[in-house]
Amino acid sequence: MEETFIFIxxxxxxxxxAISGIRLAAAKRFDWFGxxxxxxxxxxxxxxxxxxxxxxxxxxxxxxxxxxxTGLSLAAVIVFQRALVGGMxxxxxxxxxxxxxxxxxxxxxxxxxxxxxxxAVVMGIITGSFGGVTRDILIxxxxxxxxxxxxxxxxxxxxxxxxLISLAGMSELVPQISCAIVVIGLRVLAVRYNxxxxxxxxxxKSLPEK
Length: 210
Prior knowledge:
Blueprint: H1 2-27, H2 32-54, H3 65-79, H4 81-85, H5 88-112, H6 117-138, H7 152-167, H8 173-192
């Protein structure tokens, strides 16, 4: 039952992240194959690094569905270009949903592998964000992870919410839903009210001369 639930969440997250990656690739005028590669890496990048670090089977190598779903996501973007490609709001929605779902999956899979909760939170952050980092590098953009946006911080907050609520002994579904709500909620509020982390500023005069 747990594995089925995780698979469903991963499929939904794959669709969301694949569309966000393909949408950005379209904005960069990539061809269909290039857009597919960007979408696939966005969807599986974080989970791949997680599974390698946890020393378990890499999830997409056991099931071809992730590659197929990415292909269907590409087809959806091609067919519904006007709705899915136009505007930053569409990208933000899919990115936020994918981020939240993959944080939940990362935490759950790590716990199932027998690791403590603090490791699970770290793996949740990696699962949710690393695919987007790789995507941004591929399309020659500054990774959103390293900007002042509330992105990795939202993953961390969602992971902490998962941890605290699970300590209360509630049903497993409650901390998972709460984690997703916190991640999406923080992302939405950060964009709505222009929240951001402080920028690290260095006095140029203190830097060594070249």
